[in-house]
Amino acid sequence: RDLTRFERIRERRGDEMDLRVIKDASGSNGYMWCSHGYAVDSPRYLEALEKACHSLAGDVSRWLRAEHGFEAGSTRVNVIKERVDSLSSLRGRPMQQQQQEQQQSQGGAGYSGVILCAGAAVGTLRSFPLKLSETYAVNMKHEGQQTASAFDFDGVENGEGPRPSLLGQTYVVRPDRGRAIVGAVHSDDPPPPQQGLKCLNYSLADEEAEASESERADLLTMAQKLRTKASHLLPLEEWRVESVQCGVRALPPKSDKGRLPIMGRVDEEEDVWAFVGLGARGLLYHAYFARLLALAIASDDESLLPPDVLRWKTQTEKPFEF
Predict the structure, then answer these.
(1) Order of strands, edge to edge, in the sheet holding 19-23?
(2) Is this model's pTM higher than 0.70 or not?
(3) Which residues are 52's β-sheet partners?
(4) Least enclosed by CB within 10 Å: which of 21, 65, 98, 145?
(5) What is the DSSP string of 167-236?
(6) Sequence-distant contacts of 213-219: CB under 8 A, at least 24 apart
(7) Which DSSP string corresponds to 226-263?
(8) Regarding predicted confidence, which is higher, 104 or 178?
(9) Phi and psi at residue 61, in whole multiples of 5°?
């Protein structure tokens, strides 16, 4: 099924990028490879995104002042890291004292609206049709004597371009020579909403790791499961697992357009909106859908959002498929 889908994508997008479908000896399994594809370092990207938000907020202030003579205060981004235990605690809730005083001096008085973007942890605040999934990946190091790696394709390893990354039933990301990130496998049972923020990074060389003994056993079991799954297509005999990563993602229901996030107004009386269920596609979808959501909120018009991201509010005749 994956190969059929990959071939369809290659035929449709072949004029735009160099896509290849690499099959195993049996011809029944394989990967899709984009020769000029890049893997995004998510933590670094999020740090840069936060800086960009602060910078753009300043640009908005200057634009308001220049175009409209608006001098009631500056537009800014304030990051407050604080645990929120219930949605009701956010309704009409003022900001922290210091932030409140700043806003009052500039004509504000607390939150005028709330957008739930809690990802996999949103189930602790409100119920949505989401399926939580514990997902595991491993960091591997090449320890063989040969210069060629398990991920050589057409001599790319010896070139100056980006390291090849592969997408299939497992994925392979090459941050640098001799190292690889391989993923992903999922636990059979979904975790409870309270574990939505669970994130573990267990190094096999760290004897003082925070993971408990049972968590270490689970992580090592999933690492072996992932290694076995990937070894059907990749020669991993000379690769050693250095660490195991585990996180929880919130998967939205399937639709004829794929897995699309859940968005829309949550409470008609209070200005509470939701933007959740991006699953494994947050880096692809966040900017596009955030722009649409901002427009809908500013216009107070939920109908500006695509119907597919609102179907969680209207689909009642049949259960959602995950």
Answers:
(1) 19-23, 30-34, 166-167, 171-173, 179-186, 131-142, 239-251, 199-203
(2) yes
(3) none
(4) 145
(5) ESSSEEE-SSTTEEEEEEEE-SSPPPGGGTT-EEEEETT-TT-SS-HHHHHHHHHHHHHHHHHHHTTS--
(6) 219/136, 219/244, 219/246
(7) HHHHHHTTS--TTEEEEEEEEEEEEEPPP-TT----EE
(8) 178
(9) -60, -45
Residue-wise DSSP of 62-84: HHHHHHH---S------------
User: Hey, what are 221's tokens?
Assistant: 């079991």
3-state secondary structure of 314: coil
The pLDDT tens digits for 260-270 are: 899 999 877 77
Q: How high is the pLDDT of residue 265?
A: 93
What does each C-alpha distance from 78 to 27, 75, 98, 144, 208 come to in angstroms? 53, 10, 11, 49, 35
* Cα dihedral: 102, 108, 112, 115 (round 10): -30
> In the numeric block, which tokens belong to residue 207?
């004897």
Tokens of 266: 């949550």
